[in-house]
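G., the chain you wanted modeled:
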Amino acid sequence: MGRVSLRFFLSAIATIWLSLTLAFFALPVLPVIALQAGILFSGTVITETIFRRAGLGLLLLDATLERDYPIVQGIVGLTAATYIAFNSLSNLLTHWLDPRLRPIS
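Predicted structure as tokens:
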């Protein structure tokens, strides 16, 4: 009986500790992850050019070389929208995790 209650107590303590520390340590990491996801999306141009894989990066390169401006504008707009979406999601998660950033009600 004592072992069961001790295991339950330790698992509850570990759960509480993990939830508090993960929320605390996730705050500085979230913006970095958001920026890296945008860079990863933008880096497809180089990867697809080197390996000649069909995708948005190769389409952007070919459209740039052929001066097809509507396609270039569309892909650049999609890349900008991706950056904005990832950074907005990062800001929302940061405000949700950090109680200091919540508005006073």
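The chain has a mean pLDDT of 82.

Shout if anything looks off.
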